[in-house]
Amino acid sequence: MTDTTAAAGPAVDPDALKMFSFQLFTKLEGAVTAGMIHLGDQLGLYTQLKDAGAALTTAELADRAGLAERWVREWAYNQAAAKMVSVATEGGVERFTLTPEAAAVLATPEHPAYGMGMFHRLPQTMRALEEMPESFRSGVGHDYDSHGPQGAVGIERSFEPWNRANLLPNVLPALDGVVARLESGAKVADIGCGAGGAVLLMAGAFPASHFAGYDISKYALGRAAQKLEEAGVTNAAFHDPRDEPIPSNNSLDLITTFDCIHDMTHPQEMMHAIRRAIREDGTWLLVDIKAQDSFELNAKKNPMAALMYGISVLSCMSSALSEPDGAGLGTLGLSEGKAREMAAAAGFSRFRKLDIDHSVNAFYEVRP
Ligand SMILES: C[S@@+](CC[C@H](N)C(=O)[O-])C[C@H]1O[C@@H](n2cnc3c(N)ncnc32)[C@H](O)[C@@H]1O
After folding, report:
1. Would the pLDDT of 67 be above 90?
2. Which one of 18, 238, 243, 360 is least enclosed by Cβ atoms within 10 Å?
3. In terms of pTM, does the model score above 0.70?
4. pLDDT score of 257
């Protein structure tokens, strides 16, 4: 008889084995349920559940969404088992609904806690897995456009809800003298502007100022141009810095960078460019992921550390290594200490962390 225990290596504790397997398959459950959340968003199922104002049977939900009941039922069972959707059974009939909190996060784009952006781009993010083995071998990753046009929409949907609720009332007023300057007329650049949400918000609020968004993603810039036209805003424009470089004559009053320095192939060079662009009395609002100085601290302090490191491989670090000499900071690569050090090396002498509460981001006022 074959000794399978010996063949498997060191002695295995059966309870620890069960626990490890359980942990492993909770990851797969998370991945598959994330796919179901993507479908719930894309097919309007969450919106229908929210708008119904009463618990729905799967037949009613399918009817409202214009979908086939059998498929909606299996989806609803996944969602109820995963506690995304609530279910109650009365007289053998199951009815599904969203709690107010679930409705806010799953079906209310205006709510600051709305969370569908990362799920919007889930297929594009996971499709990157096909390219990853080659990136692991070559060391070279892929920029944001590798996620296609829907990748840019996903980023837009990820960041805009919080910005819409907080940028004008909470973030800009936390910067020394910036609101007064924007009111009287300032020159502003948002670098790594994505689909332009922050630029359009600020341009609408401060008509005397001019706002330029810069990004290297053609899909994000396309989306920004479309939104600019829809908004009818005349004091904003969007540019690809490779064709229309960021000014280098110390002329800008305010520069903003939202969640993008850690994605850049050359973040130190970008900080030097920001220093050349900004007025001596100007302000750089640096918003980047809240990160610690070591893996040990990230793992200890950040309950989402595994998610962040995974997203880094599939998206942020991949972008930051999309050129062979990329710095590759990645999602948790720009801690406050690292940002301070790099800003000082670029010629900034003042660096202040702002007291702004955000689940994943840290906010810094950086000045020459
Ligand atoms: C995570 S997204 C953030 C977008 C936007 N700031 C927002 O908050 O929605 C990062 C963006 O940085 C852009 N990016 C990366 N490297 C860049 C560079 N060197 N110059 C300008 N944009 C860059 C990417 O194309 C992408 O749109």
Report:
1. yes
2. 243
3. yes
4. 98
Tokens standing for residue 274 = 């920001």
User: DSSP strand E in 57-103: where?
Assistant: 86-90, 93-97
| Tokens read off for 162 | 């919080």
In a domain, 6, yes or no: no
- Residue 1 is predicted with a pLDDT of 40
Quote the domain boundaries for residue 38. Answer: 12-108
Position 53 confidence tier, pLDDT thresholds 50, 70, 90 = confident
Q: Which of 238, 242, 263, 268 to mutate to test the pocket of ligand 1 (most atoms within 8 A of CB)?
A: 263
For residue 345, what are the contacts with CB-CB under 8 A and spacing of at least 6? 268, 271
199 falls within a domain: yes
What is the C-alpha separation between 104 and 112, in angstroms, rounded? 9
Band of residue 148 on the pLDDT scale cut at 50, 70, 90: very high
Q: Is residue 37 part of a domain?
A: yes
Ligand 1 atom nearest 145 alpha carbon:
25
- Asked whether residue 211 falls in the same domain as residue 72, the answer is no
| Protein residue whose Cα sits closest to atom 25 of ligand 1 | 217
How many structural domains are present in the chain?
A: 2
